[in-house]
């Protein structure tokens, strides 16, 4: 959109100025001229270049022009004008695919990334987590998507933390001392390559003082993957060094994982079953984020597997390189910082997103029991629309009905995007179905049994008919 906006910018500005002149001649309000171009650009206006946003207003009324100049030529638009229309706020969607649960879509090597890309074309802002966006050697930058670690996502949903978008994070890299020298050098080459080729700001790396001793297994009750670190203290010391002595804003962790036999990975490499690595990967990043409140993501260090020409496309992203680190570094480079309410009030953090900004939450149909989803479902007051996708099944059994969650069930992500588009447009999704609209239900018949009113009021406040209040 940035390229398109830059190409169209002069013509649009010319049209706006011309419209302003004609409107002024006709005695009309010049402010209305900006509406002529808002319909085509409104869905992405929150992410237009700042100069472009300012130029759109450059030919309007003197009052608005003065307001733009007050904040300089690179001032952002107000949040009220960033959404689908001048009087609408941005539409924010949250996409969740729980890690290590064998999700049909999103349970493999970045195979939910196409869904996130499509969702970002409907929503003004998409909030999601590394399991959705990470594709090992592959990554796709989505300008209006926020890369949020799972524990931070839960804190955000509960209203404890806000998400502060950034232009750039300074990244630190933690390597497990248990990684063999050649494999360690492979990961350092990836870090060097992302600095030279992508321009990512990776400041320093450190190596843990003892092996992290990763253990992994499948939970017998749920079937989801899980695990633990034998030496979490070693990880915490390494991260603390990078945060306190090197000034990093985000941390990537690479731990040496036990090598699985080919037989154990047959199902996963064929696009079936559960990713046995994912559960303990989430545990590692959770520990770091909970302790230091900075973005963190993990990439496992594994010995290369034998070549197999039958690999599923859903798992193939993990077969094309020696490490899974590139997507992690790319995601962390623009991950939002986590802000508490106290910091928001005392440090004037403009542009921070909070749980009240979320309009819809999209989850697999039987994975609705996570802390984040439950927090949104149990909110008091205006709740986001929860969309449960039936085609994306997991090994869990947490359906909306079993948890008492009010949700819209959809067959697949195609339908989920349609429901989001209707919701964003202010159209009730059921009105798009043939028999979706039924007769309006009467809530109470006061003519039969009047309710006892306990509401008191001051009769002197009543205004006679014809008197202007």
From TrEMBL:
Source organism, top-level taxon: Eukaryota
Native organism taxonomy: Eukaryota, Viridiplantae, Streptophyta, Embryophyta, Marchantiophyta
Name of the protein in its database record: DUF3326 domain-containing protein
Organism in which the protein naturally occurs: Marchantia polymorpha subsp. ruderalis
Pfam families: DUF3326
